[in-house]
Each structure stands twice: as structure tokens, then as C-alpha cells.
UniProtKB/TrEMBL annotation:
Keyword match Hydrolase: no
Localization, UniProt: Cell membrane
Mode of membrane association: Multi-pass membrane protein
GO biological process: siderophore-iron import into cell
One Gene Ontology term of the molecular function aspect: transmembrane transporter activity
InterPro entries named among the record's database cross-references: ABC_BtuC-like, ABC_transptr_permease_BtuC
Entry's family note: Belongs to the binding-protein-dependent transport system permease family. FecCD subfamily.
Alphabetically ordered keywords of this record: Cell membrane, Membrane, Transmembrane, Transmembrane helix, Transport
GO cellular component term of the entry, any: plasma membrane
Designated name of the protein: Iron ABC transporter permease
Annotated TM spans: 21-41, 72-92, 104-125, 131-150, 162-182, 210-234, 265-285, 292-314, 320-338
Amino acid sequence: MSSLTDSKHKWLLPPIRRNMVVVLAICIVGLILCVIASLVLGSRPVTYHELINGLFNQQADSYGASVVQKRISRTIFSLFCGAALGISGALMQAVTRNPIADPSILGVNMGASLFVVSGIAFLNISTAYQYIWFALAGAMITAVFVFGIGSMGRGGATPLKLVLAGAATSAALSSLVIAIMIPRSYVMDQFRFWQVGSVGAGDWSSITTFIPFLVVGILLGTITTSALNALALGDEVATGLGVRTGLLRLLAALAAVLLCGATTALAGPIGFVGLLSTHIIRLILGPDMGYIIPMSAITGAIILTISDVCGRLIGSPGELEVGVVTAFIGAPILIILARKAKVQSL
């Protein structure tokens, strides 16, 4: 009888895997709906016929079809940036064992912004490829600085100390960015969207430049997943399991900086996407980084894309930059998370 029962239920997946399948299906459907909304909605809505022409008829000469073709690159760029920020947030939370870590909260985005703006103002850099390298340098230096400041004193790098160090550093760097931009109108005109973050400038050139950094960041993040699960148990336990914690933190942090630095170079300092996407997935699927990293990528892409659509609708006939929308949503949630978790470590 027991063997019959076992064979009857043998096809059933474990609960966490069933949840994963359900969440993945929901996220894929949500991603498809977000892509359609991004192509159709905006200051100039398009019809179903114009959407089909814009997608499949490259020779279409109607205005609606040309609008769709313009929005295709913007939508893909938004998806890539959202995925990069989602993974970056998940990795930063795992490395720092800080449940409210995020590239924007820890000041990494603003460090990348400062270096790019400085490069434009003083070194006359002008290409997306140059922007990315300057952004990566700024992001890395800022990440090391914030972690160093947050590690000082008794208790080491606690979540609260890291957040305070990141907030103070971000405020200081933001002031420097403004100080560099205000007397130089050409820098301000070129990078005004950096003050809030925008995917409106995303084109095929930006996507091509972004892809190598996205791929490398994803690969580095993926190979650290199992070791990050061990790290969540504590450095002593992880070391006992054979994990080289120093090398692990270096690789995971490098992946996070690559992803958020490249995104910031091309789209500006967009905040809270990594925080929101990772918390949503952790709440549903638990702490396993094997699930959190890929699902945070999908959820981050959804959050950023739908925020971009909302910004276009709210600001019509112009648009409200996506960084404003994500901040409007993310700031209250950050306060709720901080109060609920009392800023405890993972």
C-alpha cells in the first residue's frame, strides 16, 4: 500500500520547487505584459495594428509603427537595466548580510555618477564605452570606502552602520556632482537625467555596450550562489564548509559593482530596484540564492519597466523619469522594512 502511495505522489514536486514554478510562470506572464505595455503606452498610445506593423514590418512608414520601433530599444534597455539592478541588489545583500542593502542606499550609484561627470567635465570623455569604465572605477572605490567606514568600531560592518555610511557618502558625492555640473552648462545639459535616473536615452548602441558587462556580472553572480548560501550561516561555518570567504566576497562584490556601475553609466543612478525585487523573491521563495539571483533579475526587469511606463503616463505629454517613480515606491517600503526588521542582519 505504501509503495502504491509513493508511486501515486512521485510526480509531485517539493513545495519550494512548486512555488518556484508558480512564481516563474507568474513572472514570465508579468514580463510579457510589461513589454507589451512599454511598447503600446506612452505620450502617444499606439493601436494593435500599429504594434504589429512596428514589430514585424520594418518598412512600415506610419507614425505609430515608427513609435513602436523606437520603443523597442528602450524596452530592451529597461529590461536589461532592471535585471542588472535586481542581481546587484541580491548580491550586495548577501555579501554584507544586510537585508536593506542596495546600490543606491550604499552610495555606489552616486560614486559611479561622480566619476563619469568628472570625466566629462575634466577629461572630455564622450562615448558610452568610456562612461562605463569611469562608472566602474567610481562604483568600486565607493563600495570599498563605504564598507571600510561601516566596518570601523565595535561590531564590524553591521547593517545599520553600513546604511548610515552609505547615506552619508551618497549625500556628499551628490553635492560634488552638483558642484561640478552647475558651472558647466554643457555637462548639465548632457546629463540632467542623471540626477534622477532615466532609461529614455536607451538605444541599440547603449544595449550593445551594456551586454558584455551584463553577461560577465551574471556569470560571476551565478557561480557564487552556493557559496553565498553557506556565507549566510556565518563566516565561521562557511569557512568550515570549505568556502574561501574573502575570495567569495571579492567575486560577488565585483559582480554587483559591474552590474550597477554599468547601469549607472548608461541610465543614471536608479534606486530601490534591487531592494524591492530581492525582498519580494525572498519573501516568497525563501533565502536560497539559487532562486533569489535569477528571480531577482526577472522581478527587477518587471519593476523598472513598469515604472518607466508609469512615468510616461503620469508625465504625459512629457514623461516622469523612472528614477523618480522607483524612489516614490521604494522609499516608503525601505522605511517599513527598516522598522519591521529593526535593521537586523541576514
